[in-house]
C-alpha cells in the first residue's frame, strides 16, 4: 500500500435556478477540508479487498489509488467516499459510495469505470 494517499474533499456549489424556477445542474468545488490519513488508509484497504474480490488484483497492485468525497458539506461521519485507481493514460476504476461507521468502511455501492 502506498505511504502517502492523495485525498480530495469536494462540496456542492449553491443551488442555481433558471428563469422558470427549474434547478440547474449542481457543480462541485474543492474545499480546504481533508480526509485524515488513517481514514484514507482504511478506505484504500477496504476498497483494495473489494477490487481483489472482483478480480481486479492486478489493477489494485499496479495503479495509483486516491480517495475523495463529494459530500464536503456533510460531517465526516455522514459522508460517502470513493477510492479511485488511475492508470497512466487517464483511465480509472473506482469503488464508489463507501459508507463508514465509527470511521471504519462498512458498505459500498460497487464499481465505476471511466476516463479523465
Describe the structure.
The structure is a single chain. The protein is α+β, with helices and mostly antiparallel strands. It has one domain (6-115). The chain contains 2 helices and 7 strands; from the N terminus they run ββααβββββ. Strands 1, 2, 3, 4, 5, 6 and 7 form a 7-stranded mixed β-sheet that branches. A hairpin with a 2-residue loop joins strand 5 (91-101) and strand 6 (104-107). The longest helix is centred in the middle third of the chain and has 17 residues, at 37-53. The protein is globular and about 50 Å long. The two termini are 23 Å apart. The mean pLDDT is 93.
Short description:
With 116 residues, the protein is α+β, with helices and mostly antiparallel strands.
Principal-axis shape? globular
Helix content: 10-25%
- Compute the CA-based radius of gyration: 15 Å
User: Unreliable segments (pLDDT under 50, ≥5 consecutive)?
Assistant: none
Given helix and strand content, the structural type is alpha+beta
For the largest beta-sheet, the strand count, sense and barrel status come to: 7 strands, mixed
Count the E strands: 7
Question: Which tags fit this structure?
Answer:
single chain; 116 residues; alpha+beta; seven-stranded mixed sheet; 2 helices; 7 strands
